[in-house]
Design a protein that fits this description.
heterodimer, A: about 325 residues, alpha/beta, 3 domains, 3-stranded antiparallel β-sheet, 10 helices, 8 strands, about 30% helix, B: about 350 residues, 8-stranded mixed β-sheet, 12 helices, 12 strands
Chain lengths: ~325, ~350
């Protein structure tokens, strides 16, 4: 999709809304940053490429008035989930859909270039070309895409009012839970050791929580509450694990797999794996995927006397 | 100051092992793709090629520490009589922070003014600080987002360090800054480094010129930020993309705010001091339930203001930001504090 098309759509939508959220260049050529557009002349700074990683929908529940937002396929599930949970008034949102096959994990690129400062970035065919003081490195975009992109079925957003580009189809494998199934083959002790090592790094900055589009408790989070007092301010691994488990369980049937929690973690903890496991269980137990259909009710928001896949009376 | 020293690269581990006999040595260690300060031990993978993801601040100002333990003892004869036993935790070991970066070491100087150089020094901070020797590695390349030269510092700044080291082609050049550093240098018994002094200085100048300069002068910034204090529109625009998490504050070598809580189970417990962040709603939440900073723009304004206006106004114009760039490079939304300051300057 050409950036000109996006600019054209943005300029078309702008008179109808108070603000449009898109992307502009961040502090270096590798980082895009959310961009709040209120004036037509700002549209020139808009960018769109696989480095536009943030889920911009996350801002919507906190904004007043009419808002336009640039939305990728994965992020569009956020809109659907917000509609289900009545966290947005859909009529007040102008969804500018962007077709997207995959984004890039900045962490993976940084690992591939020895964490050097980036001087320049260009895209050529299937490659991203990154220039540092050590020289130029050509990397296949698929090699540095986040895990979620490998099985993404939503190349075109589920919800959009205007599409900046042509609708495209995904031709990727469907099983988003393969890695989790592999992980579950490890023994309980091995899994425990894995997570103890990972959670040990957690600094409780709550970037994962605040970046999560469905962590809507935000300022009333149980992680900081003294009453009820479910977590303490100790920094041992038990407390950290407790917070991450609460985060995961509060998202059961609501997590739309955007992967923001894991992307933003400054300590590189693979926290999305927890949500993936819960998503897998939800799929198995309720045959349900969050954020796919605005008419759905999340399984934890409702009650059935007999669930089709839970045979409690046969136990 | 005593002489300088030189250590061939292959002898680095031996030096750290020798120091580990007398001190607990913390060094930057590779864990997966990230670098953290960990206790040095044989078998760890040192990583000196880039600053650690988390500065070494927690070694002197821990993320969470039990200030004291308490125990309520009921009188078996009279249940109304309760005695309280307290046990303070003020026992600190001699420590070396090895391979901090100049910005990390300067961070402790920002803390010193608050926790040490006052009428009521903080015994926990003081205890650790006095027993810690900081060996700093000068940067030989800027990291993404860093801007130390704009805040009046530099990639080879010595303030806050006891011993400076510079990586040259075949080894490390050591130069003591304080008496503590001098002692370590003596102890290390390195070969004379004077032949490398000039080479090292040239490298410092070269690297200094490579650091990006988002603003060229600090003149008037504290006043300008104060004058913008009530300009909600400016702050709302600058902070629109901020998600108000604590990554910037917890990764910051100059952020020193804390919370105090009692964590009690039954009759025993601990009084804990743990890092807190002005980016959190709870930070200013008052007992009455009133919150003077309920909105994120007020909170990020505080973070910028504290570093670039309130602290310098209180402490002799010292900017409480070392330009390490961590808050920029690890921000989930790529909020750039240097850009906000530059915008404020031009507003």
């Amino acid at each position: 999709m050409a950036i000109e098309k996006l600019k054209e759509v943005v300029l078309k939508v702008l008179p109808e809304v108070d603000v449009i959220i898109g992307y502009r260049q961040g502090f270096d050529p590798l980082h895009a940053t959310p961009f709040f557009i209120t004036k037509p002349e700002q549209a020139d700074q808009l960018i769109w490429n696989p480095l536009c990683v943030q889920n911009l929908c996350s801002y919507l529940p906190f904004l007043k008035g009419k808002v336009g937002v640039v939305v990728k396929g994965c992020d569009s599930r956020t809109i659907v989930q917000y509609m289900q949970e009545k966290l947005i008034t859909r009529e007040n949102i102008k969804v500018i859909g962007v077709p997207c096959l995959r984004v890039i994990s900045i962490k993976k690129v940084m690992a591939a270039i020895n964490q050097q400062s980036v001087q320049n970035v260009t895209f050529e065919g299937e490659n991203i070309i990154v220039k540092t003081s050590e020289g130029q490195k050509t990397i296949l975009v698929t090699d540095v895409a986040p895990r979620k992109c490998a099985t993404c079925q939503l190349a075109t957003p589920l919800q959009y009012d205007l599409l900046a580009g042509d609708a495209i189809q995904s031709n990727k494998p469907q099983d988003a839970f393969e890695e989790t199934k592999e992980f579950e083959k490890l023994s309980l002790e091995e899994r425990r050791a894995y997570w103890e090592k990972e959670f040990d790094r957690c600094i409780r900055c709550y970037a994962c929580r605040n970046a999560c589009p469905l962590c809507i408790c935000q300022d009333k989070c149980i992680a900081e509450s003294r009453d009820p007092h479910w977590t303490s301010q100790r920094d041992n691994v038990t407390e950290k694990a407790m917070f991450h488990m609460i985060h995961g369980l509060h998202l059961a049937g609501r997590c739309i797999s955007c992967g923001e929690c894991e992307r933003v973690c400054p300590m590189d903890i693979p926290v999305a794996k927890i949500k993936n496991k819960i998503g897998m269980d939800l799929k198995e137990l309720f045959d349900y995927e969050a954020g796919m259909n605005p008419e759905d009710t999340p399984p934890m928001y409702t009650f059935k006397l007999e669930e089709a896949n839970i045979k409690e009376h046969e136990l | 100051m005593a002489d300088t020293g030189f250590l061939p690269k292959e002898n680095l581990s031996a030096l750290l092992e020798a120091l580990s006999k007398k001190f607990q040595v913390f060094a930057p260690v590779l864990e997966g793709d990230i670098v953290l300060f960990k206790r040095f031990a044989s078998g760890v993978t040192l990583c000196l090629t880039r600053p650690a993801n988390l500065p070494p601040k927690g070694i002197i100002f821990p993320q969470s520490e039990a200030l004291f333990n308490f125990n309520f003892k009921k009188d078996p004869e009279d249940a109304k009589k309760v005695a309280i036993e307290l046990k303070e935790n003020l026992d600190f070991s001699p420590t070396i922070i090895f391979g901090s970066r100049p910005c990390d070491a300067q961070g402790f100087r920002i803390y010193d003014r608050v926790y040490l150089e006052t009428d009521t020094a903080d015994p926990y901070y003081k205890g650790r600080r006095e027993k810690t020797t900081i060996i700093t590695l000068a940067c030989n390349a800027p990291s993404p987002g860093c801007f130390c030269t704009s805040v009046g510092r530099g990639p080879a700044e010595t303030e806050g360090s006891d011993l400076m080291m510079t990586e040259l082609e075949n080894g490390y050049f050591f130069e003591p800054i304080t008496e503590k550093g001098e002692e370590i240098l003596k102890e290390a018994g390195l070969e004379d480094g004077s032949a490398y002094k000039e080479q090292s200085q040239k490298l410092h100048e070269k690297v200094s010129a490579l650091v990006k300069k988002p603003f060229t002068t600090l003149e008037g910034i504290p006043e300008k930020l104060l004058s913008l204090f009530d300009n909600n529109q400016f702050w709302e625009e600058e902070t629109a993309k901020c998600i108000s998490c604590g990554a910037c504050t917890y990764l910051c070598p100059t952020c020193y705010c804390f919370n105090i809580t009692d964590e009690q189970v039954g009759n025993t417990g601990e009084r804990i001091r743990s890092w807190d962040a002005c980016m959190f709603f709870h930070f200013t939440l008052e007992a009455s339930s009133h919150n003077p900073r309920p909105n994120k723009h007020q909170r990020l304004k505080n973070r910028v203001g504290h570093k670039f206006s309130y602290y310098p106004k209180k402490y002799n114009n010292v900017i409480a930001c070392c330009g390490c760039g961590r808050c920029i490079r690890y921000c989930p939304m790529s909020v750039d504090i240097s850009e906000i300051v530059a915008h404020a300057q031009g507003a």
